[in-house]
Amino acid sequence: xxxxxxxxxxxxxxxxxxxxxxxxxxxxxxxxxxxxxxxxxxxxxxxxxxxxxxxxxxxxxxxxxxxxxxxxxxxxxxxxxxxxxxxxxxxxxxxxxxxxxxxxxxxxxxxxxxxxxxxxxxxxxxxxxxxxxxxxxxxxxxxxxxxxxxxxxxxxxxxxxxxxxxxxxxxxxxxxxxxxxxxxxxxxxxxxxxxxxxxxxxxxxxxxxxxxxxxxxxxxxxxxxxxxxxxxxxxxxxxxxxxxxxxxxxxxxxxxxxxxxxxxxxxxxxxxxxxxxxxxxxxxxxxxxxxxxxxxxxxxxxxxxxxxxxxxxxxxxxxxxxxxxxxxxxxxxxxxxxxxxxxxxxxxxxxxxxxxxxxxxxxxxxxxxxxxxxxxxxxxxxxxxxxxxxxxxxxxxxxxxxxxxxxxxxxxxxxxxxxxxxxxxxxxxxxxxxxxxxxxxxxxxxxxxxxxxxxxxxxxxxxxxx
Length: 466
What we know:
Layout: H1 13-18, H2 27-34, E1 45-46, E2 52-55, E3 65-72, E4 75-83, H3 94-102, E5 106-108, E6 111-113, H4 118-124, E7 132-142, E8 148-164, H5 166-174, H6 185-198, E9 209-214, E10 217-222, H7 227-250, E11 253-257, H8 263-275, H9 286-291, H10 298-306, E12 315-319, E13 332-333, E14 338-339, H11 350-363, H12 370-373, H13 376-406, E15 413-420, E16 423-426, E17 432-436, E18 444-453, E19 458-463
Parallel strand pairs: 1-8, 2-8, 17-19
Antiparallel strand pairs: 3-4, 4-7, 5-6, 7-8, 9-10, 11-12, 13-14, 15-16, 15-18, 16-17, 18-19
Helix pairs in contact: 2-3, 6-7, 7-11, 11-13
């Protein structure tokens, strides 16, 4: 094989056109965002005393969340400030209408198509450091085992002290100099991960591809993840579990749902693990088994890939509405191990604004505002539609990048790992593509590039036993 697989240019404009992604907002919606101000400022608690920090990818400016964790007796006190978008977007106005049309921010390798105009999502609504900001402030107390003692939310004004990124926080932690506001994040993250597995949670640690542009051109790589990524995600999951509990008690809300895996699927996964030499004792829960799986090995990666069948048919479910007076009998989320709601990314995801409003009203002992309650059924449908769109956009961008960087390599051989008998992962670049010839599952193989069609965004390989 020749040198590095790179391309100096990948044009994602065709993807934007195909999926009708337009950044520009209608003039009235843009004007409302430019003038956005906290319409509920008078009733806020002043919690600028809490030394919040944000943790996001480098360069991010749409900062939804800020965190502070402290010891609380033998447990922990988690403060999680979430951008209070509901106080910045006027109900019934043109900006709310446009965000309902968009549903969520769409991310492409060369930039995003935002849910809100950047003057709001990266300005007035973002929890940027050294700025007073309107927030929905969660206060969650955990016991020594990571069980929730209490979880409430109120409107507050907060002030972040620092904007951190995952790799930097991980490096600081490893060097023993982590920011004190998140020094306890690993302990809480690990506790909550164990709590989730004990309650049946399943966490798929599959390789996530990303198209990236470096100094020498575009390529595809596996998205780097640190331990702090996982720990920080647990705080978001914890908050979503508390939010779901509040809404279920109130009898109105919007849940993120995922059905439990059928027993037959778990048994099939056991057979796959056995066939690939992965030890899975009978008394070990599926979540614990997957958590201990070494996905850096071909066999471990193949089993984890096969485990994706356990988590299917995710959705959103509104309840306490005319269309759905009661929550579904099985309202839990199999990936979390409990009922769960999206409330921690309102700058980037529509559902969070409306679900947060239910929680704020309930915790304040007030009626849920009509603008939130009356929209829940529609918001559930919007999120279902735009989640599908976001997946298609992401896949199209990866597929296009793969085809462009491999376009002049047809006929060449590449080292790879078999993820399934019809799919391989190249060592470099990190292309995941279809493969004919039934390569042995969970094995290191050499495959030949058969197709790299830029127009069709299609890449395929072939395996021949040697």
